[in-house]
Amino acid sequence: MWVITVMSVACLLVSPSLAGIKDLSSHFTDPELEPRGFEPEGAVDIEAIPLEFHKENTVTNDLVLDGFEDEDYIDFDKILALGSDDYTEGDEIDEIATPAPDIDIFAEPSDPKIRRARLLRLFHSRSRLQRLNIVNAHFGFNLYRSLRNDVNQSDNILLAPAGISVAMGMMALGAGPGTHDQIYKALGFAEFVNASHHYDNTTVHKLFRKLTHRLFRRNFGYTLRSVNDVYVKKDVTVKDTFRAETKDYYFAEPQSVDFRDPAFLDKANRRILKQTKGLIKEPLKSVDPNMVLMLLNYLYFKGTWEQKFPKELTHYRNFRVNEKTNVRVPMMTNKGNYLAAADHELECDILQLPYTGKISMLIALPRKITGMRTLEQEISPTVVNKWLKNMTNRTREVVLPRFKLEQNYDLIANLKEMGLTDLFQESGDFSGMTSERISMNWLKHQGTITVNEEGTEAAALTQVGFMPLTSQIRFTVDHPFLFLIYEHRTDCLVFIGRVVNPSQN
């Protein structure tokens, strides 16, 4: 089983002079790696994404946090019992513009016409919710590439694109026209809205609501849930529209708190600890007393492999970090029927490791130890669809390192690079949240993932330059690789990561 936790934090301040939010840090338990019998619970838990914003909000009654962390924040069973999940907003397949037949969708992607043609081609025969998740994946891969350029070539990487997209969707609710348009353009929501005359800006938020219903149910054989908390400074008013829409679309209701009260940190941290099943301990080390609003989003996943790796077969062996360096790490081994494919254009092999319940991990392993750069540069929803479409099922021996990653990033520079500039300067318009001039000065994204023997099903989807991986009988992951976690009912890219050195967190 494996566990992933991700947490991002974005802070909006009343004025640039108040931009000194102190650092958030997360403390994760770090179980020792043993050759056999380690991590007996062996589950995959993914937790994720807190965001903090400063703004003005309509105050609700004082929040009594004592015992609050013991409540079930969103009763999905009740939602489903009431039939609230049956509206068709996310399941419809609308007519979309057909790409011009003379456009080569596999040509240079910098051409905006080609990018749009690729997107529309992917949209065909997909539901609205699947289309939104294709856009979210585009954003996630682009953000990954931006981050990849900022870290060392030897660093492991972990991102939760789904949580970041949810966070940006919530931010868009409070943004004025100019800033709203910038968010939609940078995240790809604008391209989604323009794909069909049936869509408007509100469609995006309706689909995030639908995604919560579809993706975060509890009866699919795995646990994947999202929780949003909104804390508002005492005696500050939030606009009624923002309060209502945040609750309606993102199940987040503003709660009035005193950020100057030291007890707030303890109570908020206890709630985070509970919602992340103990994976995130005291992430909020301090809070600027001048904060107006804090928005937190958690994403938690716990899954079990369809075919568990026998613990008695785990053994130490070499993992090639680069052409000069090897590390000895516990390698899990299993033999069974697995889907796999070969991408001869990107010179990599792909393995699908399913969890119970239509969610899986895709391992993309470059054939050359120096091939990671090309794979990272070209990864896209189009590429992933081709992998899934061309997979074949046969008996294989799989050898995979057990690993745990803990990462912490400040994503402001990356989001600016992707066009989100207004959010982080005085020109940003958050008039949908507050009448005060505010800007965001901090956006943190932190997470952890543990992959072990316990902790899985798949789907397949599209072609070109691919051959079925029919001849390979062993899939040995003994050098740097990419991994993706996909939920296949909704085509949602939940996590993306890179393992360069499994011996390092």
Please explain how this structure is put together:
GO terms for molecular function: serine-type endopeptidase inhibitor activity. The protein is of the alpha+beta class and 505 residues long. The protein folds into two domains: 307 residues, Antithrombin, subunit I, domain 2 (Antithrombin, Chain I, domain 2, 2-Layer Sandwich); 136 residues, Roll (Alpha-1-antitrypsin, domain 1). Helices cover 26% and strands 27% of the residues. Strands 3, 7, 8, 9, 10, 11, 14, 15, 16 and 17 form a ten-stranded mixed β-sheet that branches. Helix 4 packs antiparallel against helix 5. The two termini are 17 Å apart. The N terminus is likely disordered.
Global Rg: 22 Å
Terminal CA distance reads 17 Å
H/I helix tally: 12
* CATH superfamily heading of the largest domain: Antithrombin, subunit I, domain 2
Oligomeric category: single chain
GO molecular function: serine-type endopeptidase inhibitor activity
Protein name: Serpin domain-containing protein
Keywords: Signal
Organism: Perca fluviatilis (European perch)
List keywords for this structure.
505 residues; alpha+beta; Antithrombin, Chain I, domain 2; Alpha-1-antitrypsin, domain 1; 2 domains; 7-stranded mixed sheet; signal; Serpin_CS
Topology:
Blueprint: E1 2-13, E2 44-45, H1 76-81, H2 112-123, H3 128-148, E3 157-159, H4 161-173, H5 177-187, H6 189-194, H7 201-215, E4 223-233, H8 240-250, E5 254-257, H9 262-275, E6 293-303, E7 315-320, E8 326-343, E9 348-355, E10 359-366, H10 372-378, H11 381-389, E11 392-401, E12 403-410, H12 412-417, E13 439-451, E14 466-468, E15 474-476, E16 481-487, E17 492-499
Parallel strand pairs: 4-5, 11-15
Antiparallel strand pairs: 1-6, 1-13, 2-6, 3-17, 4-6, 7-8, 8-9, 8-11, 8-14, 9-10, 10-16, 12-13, 16-17
